[in-house]
């Protein structure tokens, strides 16, 4: 199976602009610029797209693993916070923090934590990351 995303760009780094698209059409010519990446201007940036992909991948991995235990989540909120820092003359992704708040009827805390940590490890996007991924998972069945 192969999936693709694409990007285009016109102009210089600071004065130019680009757009990103996905095969599915979920994003179509969505704008990005130097200032949407390194500043606070409207538009997307690669790091938030990686974060969204990571959160979605982890969520599906977690739900699949719950299913093997005949459990189903009532609600999940996953977030992948991707940090980019100056690295010499360029930039590098230096940290990723993945978090989950979940409502899963019928699961105990120990099983929940075990499944969540396994889902993080087996998520294909987690495997792609070349940095340590810090992680926290909170069961909210109250």
What does this 3D model show about the protein?
One of its GO terms (biological process) is response to oxidative stress. InterPro entries: KH_dom-like_a/b, OsmC/Ohr_fam, OsmC/Ohrsf, OsmC_Ohr_Peroxiredoxin, Peroxiredoxin_OsmC. One of its GO terms (molecular function) is peroxidase activity. This is OsmC family protein. Strand 2 and strand 3 (30-32) form a beta hairpin. This protein is of the alpha+beta class and 142 residues long. It has helices spanning 34-38, 46-68, 109-122, 124-128, and strands at 5-10, 17-22, 30-32, 75-87, 90-103, 133-139. The chain is elongated and about 55 Å long. Helix 2 crosses helix 3. The mean pLDDT is 95. Helices cover 33% and strands 35% of the residues. The longest helix is centred in the middle third of the chain and has 23 residues, at 46-68. It folds into 2 domains: 5-38, no CATH class; 46-139, K homology (KH) domain (GMP Synthetase, Chain A, domain 3, 2-Layer Sandwich), CATH 3.30.300. 20% of the residues are buried.
Radius of gyration: 18 Å
Poorly predicted ranges (pLDDT <50, ≥5 residues)? none
Count of discrete structural domains: 2
CATH class of the largest domain: Alpha Beta
Percent of sequence in beta strands = 25-35%
CA distance, first residue to last residue: 40 Å
Helix content: 25-40%
Spatial strand arrangement across the major sheet? 1-2-3
Described by strand count, sense and barrel closure, the largest sheet is:
3 strands, antiparallel
- Overall geometry comes to elongated
pLDDT averaged over residues? 95
Q: Which structural class do the helices and strands define?
A: alpha+beta
What is the CATH-assigned architecture of the largest domain?
2-Layer Sandwich
How many strands in all?
6
In CATH, the homologous superfamily of the largest domain goes by the name: K homology (KH) domain
* SSE arrangement, N to C: EEEHHEEHHE
The number of helical elements comes to 4
- Oligomeric status: single chain
CATH topology of the largest domain: GMP Synthetase, Chain A, domain 3
Organism: Ferirhizobium litorale
Pfam families: OsmC
GO molecular function, one term: peroxidase activity
Protein name: OsmC family protein
